[in-house]
Amino acid sequence: MTGRTADAEAWIRYRRTARQDGLVRALTLLCESVDGGPPRGPGGHVVVPAGVAGAETGDVVTTMTVEDGAVVALRSRAEPPSGPTPWAAWALGVTCLRFGLSERLLDAVLAHLGGRTVGDAKLLHQQMVKGGVAEAVIEQLEIETMLAGATPGDLDDDILAGLNAQITETDRMLLRLLGAVSFLADGPGQVARVSELIADVHFGSARAGEHGGAA
User: Fold this and answer.
1) Any idea what DSSP says for residue 187?
2) DSSP of 31-46, one letter per residue?
3) 195 vs 9, 26, 87, CA distance in Å?
4) CA-to-CA distance for 75 and 117, rounded, in angstroms?
5) What digits encode the pLDDT tens for the residues 151-174?
């Protein structure tokens, strides 16, 4: 395994952990792996697992419970660091993590639809439902292609922001397929909403090149 391949594999683990173990486990791994901890977004906010929130200096904006634990949104009171920030590593890690959560959401949708029937036919086999699933899968394949083999710095801020927007839209497609189940406080819909919040904190109001001093 070459050095670059090993580096790329390190970023795949965030995606894999998110898909297999959930948001809190993957976000904890990311927070602990990125040098200096999670950088703040342009507005001074950060979303971290409740278990590592004590290491962050800031006011708690909200606490959200998801399938595998709790996360908190903080607005930091600290001054931004004067030196380089680990933005490139964090931005790629967040994108890989969110993609893994999107894959986990697709798994939940397929399991849910596969267990429901309308008349004698499975709901998953209905044409409109199949079309909705296929559209989401195509979006995920496009995202996967862009992230394949990527290491920090390979994808610029505009590309990463676009990928996060695409993940958000894909998740919204999948939530529509879940129907009422997506509104459950401890279900996959809540995870998707927290995932979207994480993207908004770091990518929503940011412009390319802005993160180096604001994160």
Assistant:
1) S
2) HHHSTTSPPP-TTSEE
3) 22, 12, 18
4) 46
5) 999 999 999 999 999 999 999 999
Coil, strand or helix: which one is 72?
Answer: strand
Write down how long the chain is: 215
Q: State percent of the chain over pLDDT 70.
A: 83
CA distance from start to end of the chain: 33
> Of 74, 16, 14, 76, which is closest to residue 50 (Cα–Cα)?
74
Place of tokens 């965030």: 14
Query: At residue 215, what is the residue type?
Result: A
Question: β-strands 45-49, 117-118: how paired?
Answer: unpaired
Buried b (16+ CB within 10 A) or exposed e, 131-147: ebbeebbebbeebeebb
Whole-number average pLDDT of the chain? 84
Q: What is the dihedral of CA 184, 187, 192, 194, to 10 degrees?
A: 80
- Residue given tokens 């979303």 in the structure block: 47
pLDDT in tens, 84-119: 557 899 999 999 999 999 999 999 999 988 877 776
* Cβ pair 109, 133 in contact under 8 A: yes
- Token duo for residue 200: 């908004």
pTM across the whole model: 0.87
CA distance 114 to 116: 6
Check residue 185 and give left, alpha or beta (phi > 0: left; psi -120 to 50: alpha).
alpha
